[in-house]
Design brief:
9-stranded antiparallel β-sheet, 9 strands, globular, 1 helix, mainly beta, 7% helix
Length: 136
């Protein structure tokens, strides 16, 4: 089994390339779990329901250039396009691109003495459309 290691990802959100500010990113693509068991079933029967997704991203919050802080404050609660690739290179089977329209509802800023300023966002699907995955 091949192993991959994250070093440079591509993250485009709020019409801005934020790749240089990303510390970590987690993409969750899911479907509702629906129980369709009838009364005669010996066990539980399940089917996949409505698609949903979210992206957890941790960003360095550089107050000196004010880019991240300004973007987050301006776009809080606004649906916007999102694009993510594990690597910064071309789209392919080893570097799939995920796209969707997402929204975030809080802008928590974390500050601690002797540590870098960070912001952790959870971006959620805003239009009811499944997260798209492209390999070409």
């Amino acid at each position: 089994m091949a192993k991959s290691h994250a070093s440079i990802c591509y993250f485009y959100f709020m019409a801005t390339d934020l790749s240089a500010y990303v510390r970590s990113i987690t993409v969750r693509d899911s479907r509702d779990e629906l129980d369709v068991s009838d009364m005669s079933a010996a066990g539980i029967k399940r089917i996949a329901g409505t698609p949903d997704w979210s992206v957890d991203v941790e960003l360095y919050n550089d107050f000196a250039d004010n880019l991240v802080n300004e973007l987050l404050n301006t776009n809080l609660g606004v649906a916007t396009a999102l694009t993510f690739r594990p690597g910064s290179g071309n789209i392919g089977t080893g570097n799939p691109e995920y796209t969707g329209t997402g929204i975030f509802f809080e802008n928590p800023i974390a500050l601690a003495k002797k540590e870098v300023a960070m912001v952790s966002l959870t971006i959620k699907c805003s239009n009811g459309v499944a997260l798209a995955r492209a390999t070409a």
